[in-house]
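This entry is passed on directly below:
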Amino acid sequence: MEDPSHDDVHCMERLREGDDLALNYLMGRWKEPLVSFCFRYTGNLADALEIVQETIIKVYGSRHRYRPKAAFSTWLFTIAVNLCKMRARWKSRHPEILEADGGSKVGQQASSAGMDGTDPGIETDRNALANDLDHAIQSLPHELRVAFVLFEMEGHSYREVAAVLKCTEKAVERRLARAREDLRSILEPKWRN
C-alpha cells in the first residue's frame, strides 16, 4: 500500500515543476478535512469555504518554496490555522459586518425534529446542546480552539497538533485540558441535569 503523504509530496513536486493538474489531487484529498476543520473553527460555512479556497491559493502560490520538512498535512493545516486566526481577528475588528452575516452560522438549520421518528423534545435538546457547544468552542482562545478542534473533532494526534501549533506535545496536552475545562465551565451551568 502506498503512503498517501508520499503522494502529497510527489504532487507538490509535480506542481512545482509546472503540472497544475497535481493541485486537483491535493484538493480532492484535502478539501473535505480542511472544510471540516475551518467550519468547526469559525462556526460559519461561508467563512470556512473562503478560508479553504484561500488555503489552496496559498499552497499554489507557495509551490516553488515548498520543502517537505514536515508532513504535508502539517504544512497545509498550519496555513489554514493562520488564515482562520486572521479571519477571526478581522471579524473582531469589523463587528458591523457580522450583523449582515447571519445566514450560515452553526445551528441555524431548518428544524426537522420528529421527522425521522425521534422524540421532538429529545431532538430539540440535542440541537440546542450542539448549538451551545459550537458557540462555546467559538469562545475559546485561538490556541485552545485549534488544539481542541484538531484533536477532539478532527482526530489529529498530539504530534500533528503540536507541529501545526509549533509547540510541544505536552503543551498540546495542557491546552486540551484547559479547553475542556473552559468548555465545561461554559456548558455545565446550563446543562447540569
Notes: The radius of gyration is 19 Å. The first helix runs from residue 4 to 16.
